[in-house]
Amino acid sequence: MSRSRQPPLVTGISPNEGIPWTKVTIRGENLGTGPTDLLGLTICGHNCLLTAEWMSASKIVCRVGQAKNDKGDIIVTTKSGGKGTSTVSFKLLKPEKIGLLDQSAVWVDEMNYYDMRTDRNKGIPPLSLRPANPLGIEIE
Q1: pLDDT digit string (tens) for 42-55?
Q2: CA dist., res. 125 & res. 40, Å (int)
């Protein structure tokens, strides 16, 4: 005769806020007996099961996706314990959008090359070796 397990209980999440696709660690009790026991994982109403990595019965790591709600519970569902509850919530932050007149920073990797004629290092390659569109900005 098998003993019925308690439902999952989420007691902690780190970090407790972030933008979509933030990697979070979920802590709790009865979070499953193994990776195949995990049936569902939602954060703020978004299904995060595809990115979930079951670590132990008290720890799951996943990424928060685009969600309908900006604040919500973390719900874990397992075969062995059913649908769980949460004592903590996650706050989904809106990513900042960059407009035409806003400043932004982009890292452009410049190649170093050695000029054998002058026996010196050059920091920026000649125009013929530079990519045509180093930032990848397309004008439509």
Answers
A1: 998 899 999 999 99
A2: 52
